[in-house]
Specification:
A 5-stranded mixed sheet has the order 2-1-3-14-6, with helices on both faces. A 3-stranded antiparallel sheet has the order 12-7-13. It folds into 2 domains: 214 residues, 3-Layer(aba) Sandwich (D-Maltodextrin-Binding Protein, domain 2), CATH 3.40.190.10; 205 residues, Periplasmic binding protein-like II (D-Maltodextrin-Binding Protein, domain 2, 3-Layer(aba) Sandwich), CATH 3.40.190. It is an alpha/beta fold and 447 residues long. It contains 20 helices and 15 strands. It is globular.
């Protein structure tokens, strides 16, 4: 669940969503289905009970469902793992197209949510008064589910970015923790000169990482207004990131090891990869996959361009949504509210390695005082909480971001493979996105 955004999916996935949207959303049941209109109706539905189907791949799913059924014994939830990420999305879109077969509730990552929203396949939860829950969540995660004045889900987890670094390695080579990206590049050169087998980071080109880094740099390359889309992968912020990261790509200062592979974990544990710029879910990944690095690692805020103003972006995370096909949307909404706002459910989620989106958890003394042995008992959540407070606003994903990510390797990925200018790859990505979007019925323009 907490890996970087997945990038492989068939082109048919987006075609289904766009076709549904442009055809007047005939795949949905319309209105509020078996749901209704307000908070009282949600409470009544929970008391009356019923049966729900929930698609999710989160490790905490079974425990959360069991706890919910204990709290609401008249409700039965059938938990289905329909696949991780894009595997689930393909099945979900097939159900949207067919007009039947969708679950009542589904787990959807933030980057994929606009695609389902555009197809009008999701229930607007504001009709149940869920807008009032806004203060419970971080601004970054709430902004990912509150689109065009409609609330399409409730956030489950978040991925505010920070810099995870091998403190032992930094100390060995007298490398100061970088506060700016210029200092980060200088650290990369110093490290690799001292030990040619060591690299500042591992990055072979990843769509989710790229968009997050553009986000942090102030780039806003995607502007979406319904089916009208503007793509500008050469705006000021995008070029700022690309020109900076080129220093690492073109000078071969990044490990050419794909993430989440056995070799990647070995290099993290063995001191050959010195940092990872990643979402707040990363501690669970490195603790379980690179056990040999225990005690060597630490966490610091992500470097910035001016070294003064804290600013970061989200990388990963997702929400639970209620499908319009649900025969009992009010009951499904009640389940989603409990799932992502009740203390019992959130604590169960944290126990499985998730990073919270709820402000109450992020500010609790117990959460902030957590000192993992892996990070030499550093209270890392204090840093990660700071990151969640510093997520820049105004980011938009494409309504066909799933497809966009799937062709990243053929465009921007080639710049990485050739150790060449990332801007060239970004321009190729933009051209492909404009062409594809227009072919699917969007009105896409480039700047």
């Amino acid at each position: 669940m907490h890996k970087r955004l997945r990038t492989i999916v068939g082109a048919a996935l987006t075609t289904v969503a766009v076709t549904a949207a442009l055809a007047g959303c005939s795949s949905s049941t319309g209105g509020t289905g078996g749901g209704g209109g307000n908070a009282d109706q949600v409470d009544a539905a929970l008391k009356a009970g019923g049966t729900l189907t929930y698609w999710s791949w989160t490790p905490s799913g079974a425990a959360q469902v069991a706890a919910f059924e204990k709290a609401y014994p008249k409700v039965k939830v059938k938990l289905v793992n329909a696949g991780t990420g894009n595997d689930e999305y393909t099945k979900l879109q097939n159900a949207v197209k067919a007009g039947s077969g969708a679950p009542d509730v589904a787990q959807v990552e933030y980057f994929a949510l606009p695609q389902f929203a555009l197809a009008d396949s999701l229930t607007d939860l504001s009709q149940y008064g869920f807008d009032d829950l806004k203060s419970k969540y971080t601004s970054g995660t709430w902004g990912s589910v509150d689109l065009d004045g409609k609330l399409y889900g409730l956030p489950q987890d978040s991925g505010p970015m920070a810099m995870f670094y091998n403190k032992t390695l930094f100390d060995k080579y007298s490398i100061a923790v970088p506060k700016t990206w210029d200092e980060y590049i200088a650290a990369a050169k110093k490290l690799h000169k001292a030990d040619p087998s060591a690299y500042i980071n591992s990055d072979t080109g990843d769509a989710g990482f790229t968009t997050s880094m553009i986000w942090q740099a102030g780039g806003r390359p995607f502007k979406v207004d319904g089916t009208k889309v503007t793509v500008n992968l050469q705006d000021e912020g995008t070029k700022k990131w690309a020109d900076t990261w080129n220093e690492l790509v073109e000078n071969k200062l990044l490990a050419q090891t794909p993430g989440f592979t056995d070799d990647w974990y070995k290099q993290l544990a063995g001191g050959e990869i010195a940092t990872q710029i990643s979402g707040a879910w990363f501690p669970g990944v490195i603790e379980s996959g690179a056990k040999g690095g225990s005690g060597d690692w630490a966490v610091a805020p992500i470097p910035t361009y001016d070294g003064k103003t804290a600013v970061t972006a989200e990388n990963g995370g997702g929400a639970q949504v209620v499908m319009k096909q649900s025969k009992n949307q009010a009951l499904a909404a009640g389940f989603v509210k409990w799932l992502n706002s009740s203390d019992g459910s959130v604590n169960t989620f944290l126990a499985s390695g998730g990073f919270p989106s709820t402000t109450a958890t992020l500010t609790s003394s117990d959460f902030l005082a957590t000192k993992p042995d892996y990070f030499s008992k550093q209270p890392i959540n204090e840093v990660l909480k700071g990151a969640s407070d510093s997520v820049a606003s105004g980011w938009q994903y494409l309504p066909f971001q799933v497809y966009a990510n799937s062709i990243y390797a053929d465009t921007v990925g080639q710049s990485y493979a050739n150790f060449s200018d990332i801007n060239t790859g970004l321009k190729a990505w933009q051209s492909a996105l404009v062409k594809y979007g227009n072919e699917q019925g969007f009105t896409v323009s480039a700047k």
